[in-house]
Amino acid sequence: MTGQHPPRYAGGPCFTCGRPWPCFERQVASLVEYAGRGDLLVAYMGDWHRLGVEERRQRGLPFDPDMELRHLGWLDMVLPARGERRSGDG
Q1: Number of domains the chain is built from
Q2: What are phi and psi of 14, to 5 degrees?
Q3: Rounded CA gap, 23 and 13, in Å?
Q4: What is the CA radius of gyration of the chain?
Q5: I need a labelling partner for 59 at 20 to 30 A (CA). Which of 13, 14, 42, 88 fits?
Q6: Cβ contact 75:49 at 8 Å
Q7: What is the C-alpha to C-alpha distance for residues 50 and 32, in angstroms, rounded to an integer?
Q8: Which pLDDT score is estimated for 72?
Q9: pLDDT tens track for 45-66
Q10: Is residue 31 domain-resident?
């Protein structure tokens, strides 16, 4: 589900705008695509982060210290705060 602004390869730049992926546009599109399913968005971005680390290592590229923040650092906005319940939670 990368739609607009897909990565060139896991851990690489955005195919559309050339910025590090996920770029801002991809993050916003992901929020829309996964609205109400924050847990799935976290798993999805976590998988891309893991794949990106592996891909960069296989390509002999240097460690990207900002990759974790780009993939996972903004996802707290889609999950309930600790101790809170989302509507519909049992």
Answers
A1: 1
A2: -70, 135
A3: 8
A4: 14
A5: 42
A6: no
A7: 23
A8: 95
A9: 999 999 999 999 999 999 999 9
A10: yes
The answer to whether residue 14 sits within a structural domain is no
Q: Which amino acid is at 55?
A: E
> What is the per-residue pLDDT for 3?
67
Q: What is the mean pLDDT of residues 9-33?
A: 96
Tell me, what DSSP letter sits at residue 89? -
Please indicate, yes or no, if residue 8 is contained in any of the structural domains: no
Half-sphere exposure of 13 (CA within 13 A, CB side): 5
**24-28 contacts, C-beta under 8 A, 24 or more apart:** 26/2, 27/74
Q: What global pTM score does this model have?
A: 0.82
- Host domain of residue 33: 24-78
Contact 22, 47 (CB under 8 A): no
In the chain, the amino acid numbered 70 is R
Residue 4 pLDDT class (50, 70, 90 cuts): confident
Instruction: Calculate ∠ Cα 2-58-47, nearest 5°.
Output: 35
